[in-house]
UniProtKB/TrEMBL annotation:
The keyword Nucleus does not apply. InterPro entries: DIOX_N, IPNS-like_FE2OG_OXY, IPNS-like_sf, Oxoglu/Fe-dep_dioxygenase_dom, Plant_2OG-oxidoreductases. It holds the Pfam family DIOX_N. The lineage of its organism: Eukaryota, Viridiplantae, Streptophyta, Embryophyta, Tracheophyta. The keyword Metal-binding applies. Keywords: Iron, Metal-binding, Oxidoreductase. Residues 200-302 form the Fe2OG dioxygenase domain. It comes from Papaver atlanticum. This is Fe2OG dioxygenase domain-containing protein. SUPFAM superfamilies: Clavaminate synthase-like. GO terms for molecular function: metal ion binding; oxidoreductase activity. Coiled coil: none annotated.
Amino acid sequence: MGIMIKDLIESNDLISVPNSKHALPAKAEDLVMLAEEEVEQVTLPVIDISLLTSGSVDQRSQIIEDLRNACLHWGFFMVTNHGVPESLKEELINSCMKFFDLSPEEKSVYDGENASDPCILNPIVCGTNFNPASESVSFWRDYLRILMHPVFNSPAKPEGLSEALSEYGERSREIMKELVRVIMEGLELEEEDIEESLELNSGVQKFSANLYPPCPQPELAIGLPAHADRGLLTLLIQNDVGGLQIKNKGKWVAVNAIPNSIMVNTGDHMEIFSNGKYKGVLHRAVVNNKKTRISLVMTNGPSTETYAT
């Protein structure tokens, strides 16, 4: 198994990004050269999902309109009153942190090379002596990916991770299904069409834990380069360390979660299903030299049969 960034940091007194064969060429938009204050901080639209079932007719209509605008103009929004206890979110974050704290030998069990493996630990230690002429940028992320549904999987360690994953997986799947139904309602599609076309109950659900340790040269590295997600909707929770940036109206903006919320964004399959109306939005993760950031991402897509078609 390759060396995890977290393990590398703890075994060395790093003062620079190390050399590595994994340095990748980057587009200009992937090179994080701006000071943090030069990236505008924005507040995403907030959707109170409880009003979809407990609000008045007018309130529900307003939420549908707000969700339509959020998907159309941002592709990202915050969901509040979602029914996921803060205690569960904290337990899951802490359990994932403990997973990355396991010894290299314990983590090597999940060193998978086959993309179809249910649990894959994908260490990416990407470093280079930065040379502007080479237009290269370094990855700075440790990554665990788990297939959650239709068949549930989980690492055996640490204790409590499997239980937290299972409960959060079920709750987040219900949130996803409710949001998809309402989004499609806003597109004036029938609920029966949604269920038949997407087969949400047997849909694919993938969980990713992304660990971004402090980087000695954050201006020469990136946690995750610009990309759009696959699937219908992605749900994200994180600790209190910022680093997510999205591209909106041609420029990068920084976003942070508000308390007691879950961040949601549209993916490529939503773009297809909405006939191009709701785009899969480019986003990236930047790193810092002071604090560890962890983000937990639940990607939800249609069934594998729908993927195939």
